[in-house]
Every structure is written in C-alpha cells, then in structure tokens.
Design a protein that fits this description.
Length: 224
C-alpha cells in the first residue's frame, strides 16, 4: 500500500474513532461475530431445495444414481430437440458419466453458437436459494453455462447444503485440495429480465431454460 493511501485510511479511522493497530482490528472483527445461521434441518434440505427450484421456474428430475441421471438427461434433451446432442466440459465427473446408457451424443468442448444444450456438474447446491455453484475454468468452459439455449446441471445430493455460508466453506475445502478455478458462478434459475415494460423475459442474457438433475437416494425416494 502506498504512503498516501495509508495516510488517507489513517485519517478515516481517526474520524470514525476506529482502532488502527492490527491486534485491535482483529479483536473488533472477532467481536462482530458471524451471520445468524439459518435453521434448516438436514432432512428437509431436499424438499426446500425443490421448492426454491420450482419458484424459479426451473424443471427438475430426481434419480437414484448416475445411470438414471444419464437416462433422464437423454429423455429431457430428446423432448426438446428430437435428438440427443449435448456439449460438456472436461470435468472428471462429466467424463465418467455412463453416457451410452442414454444413447447421448456428447461433445467434450466449449460450446459454439450452434450448440443448443450444455451440461454441467455443480460443485455445490444451496437449499435456501435454489442456487447451484459451477466452476468456470479450463475443464468447465463458461460458454457451456451461458451460450447455450438449454442448461442442464447435475447435482449430487451429498453436495447440497443449507446456506451460502456453508456453500462457501465447502468450496474453500475443495480449493485446498484441487486448487482455485478461474471463476465460480452461482446459478439460480434460467436467464431472465424484467427491464422492458416490467414483463419477465427468459433467455435475455443466457439459457432460456434450466433443468436440474438431482442424484441421490433421498431425492429418488421423494420422486417415488
């Protein structure tokens, strides 16, 4: 930090009566504490998450395993385009999916303007907001999240947490083991805007539709 910047900050602290020494600042931050934790029982996470998705006009499929997820993905894509063509990144979990179980023609690459369906695998889902955190890096091209018409995001039930605070804690743990991505996007529903005549329009800045495939035994139990 430059001397002039430090002088300006020192003046601001003196006017506010704020402590200037590092130990005093650390103590003040500790006394502030953290944000209140949302009271959300673990057994209700899936139900709350599904409610949030529905409120955002996000469609969802519940399935017990990866093979069922691929078949659900195949049926969803075919219902929209009468084909089974999708583009996916180089994420290890996407590469390991049993694509043949659904007869899907997957291209592992960044989406081009001709692509209609992009598939991503969320690192974490947030029940309180119905949001999904996806990486944007070499293995997960950002264009696969934004350039396509239909975005399909898979989420393992084990990666569903209650709050944003828990989501960031989980993401920091992943970064300690796997390194930091270039970017992280929290996606909540399809792209939409109400800027023009206060009418909600989908697909203004990204996908016109979002479909979530939740993989896990509890989710599959709800579906049945």
């Amino acid at each position: 930090m430059t001397d002039s910047a430090e002088q300006i900050l020192a003046r601001l602290r003196s006017v506010q009566g704020a402590p200037c020494e590092a130990p005093a600042i650390a103590k003040a931050l500790e006394e502030l504490g953290g944000a209140p934790i949302t009271n959300m029982p673990n057994e209700e996470l899936v139900s709350i998450f599904l409610q949030r998705l529905d409120s955002q006009q996000t469609s969802v499929t519940l399935t017990p395993d990866r093979s069922g997820a691929v078949r659900a993905l195949s049926e969803h894509v075919y219902s929209l385009y009468s084909n089974r063509k999708v583009v996916a990144g180089f994420d290890a979990r996407l590469a390991a999916l049993p694509w043949r179980d659904g007869g899907i023609l997957v291209r592992f690459d960044a989406a081009s303007p001709e692509d209609r369906v992009g598939v991503s695998f969320a690192k974490v889902g947030v029940a309180e907001s119905g949001s999904l955190a996806v990486y944007c890096d070499r293995s997960n091209p950002a264009s696969n999240n934004w350039l396509i018409q239909d975005h399909i995001i898979l989420l393992d039930e084990a990666d569903l947490v209650a709050t944003y605070e828990q989501a960031w804690a989980r993401l920091r743990e992943l970064q300690e083991d796997q390194g930091s991505p270039r970017g992280i996007s929290f996606i909540s529903g399809p792209s939409s805007t109400s800027d023009i005549m206060a009418e909600k329009v989908f697909g203004a800045h990204g996908p016109i539709r979002l479909h979530v495939i939740l993989v896990g035994s509890k989710a599959a139990g709800l579906a049945s």
